[in-house]
Amino acid sequence: MTADRPASRAGASAPAAPSATVAVWDPVVRIFHWGVVAACTLNLFILSPGKTWHRYTGYAVLCLLVLRVVWGFIGSRYARFSDFVRSPLVIRRYIVDLRHGRDVRHLGHNPAAAVMMVVLMILLLATAMSGWMMTLDAFWGNALIEEAHEVLANSIMVLAGLHALAAIVESVRHRENLVLAMVTGRKKA
């Protein structure tokens, strides 16, 4: 198995020991992931919308996004966009394989997870920007901006739920705890 291609059952030389792991998610990727989870949880469910700490948390997400985008070009192998952003044809092929029950495993993001990650990053950016715009005199009280901010935030909540569900399903399918992998940075080899 090569690390940049999906693992397959056929053609593998020697199976790895069940306890063998490999580093996949570096600290920057994990800090980004869990920082965004914490910030979105705070802003969606705990902090009062529009108040100081809600805004600071939104700015923290914006900083995390800038870090992650830069890291997507200069970071470790599995953090780089070039490792997981794929063409529509590759994404389509992956979804067809998935629908037919083919056991396709990726060490890094699979093509569907990569789409989800990019969409969530775009939504996070749009939400942070619309929130920032609401603090400007030019957009103060603008109902359209406020509505867009709310719709974007709710979209993040729905897609994050789908993302978590997909991680659980993939964990069961591949007999590997993907949530734990995002904590430790390691996946089975």
UniProtKB/TrEMBL annotation:
Q: Which residues lie in coiled coils? A: none
Where is the protein found, in the record's own terms?
Cell membrane
User: Transmembrane stretches, by residue range?
Assistant: 31-50, 56-74, 112-132, 152-172
Domain Cytochrome b561 bacterial/Ni-hydrogenase, by residue range, is 24-185
Q: Does the keyword Coiled coil apply?
A: no
Q: Which GO terms describe its biological process?
A: respiratory electron transport chain
- A Pfam family hit: Ni_hydr_CYTB
What is the membrane topology listed in the Swiss-Prot or TrEMBL record?
A: Multi-pass membrane protein
Name of the featured protein:
Cytochrome B
Q: Which organism is it from?
A: Pararhizobium antarcticum
Q: Which taxonomic lineage does the organism of this UniProt entry have?
A: Bacteria, Pseudomonadati, Pseudomonadota, Alphaproteobacteria, Hyphomicrobiales
